Amino acid sequence: MRNEHGLTWGQVAHLLGVETRDVADYEQGQPVPNRILAAFSDVFAVHWAWLLLGIGQRYTPASLLFAVDTLLL
Questions:
Q1: Helix intervals (H) in 2-59
Q2: What is the DSSP letter of 57?
Q3: How many CB atoms lie within 10 A of CB 48?
Q4: What is the pLDDT of residues 17-30, one digit of tens each?
Q5: Looking at the whole model, is its pTM more than 0.85?
């Protein structure tokens, strides 16, 4: 998600309201608290099944519009 929007770990962390290390840990496959996953889901409109299990659709095209709008705020 981050790379698709051309964002750094720090920018994503700011959008999510979390520490940069939390974003880095998630991308590197480290365990992260559920609140971090919930923030990803809320801000980028990502499906829980994809976040937790890597199955199903990551998000719908409509969700991408939400994510782009969020990034411009």
A1: 9-16, 20-27, 34-44, 48-53
A2: -
A3: 12
A4: 999 999 999 889 89
A5: no
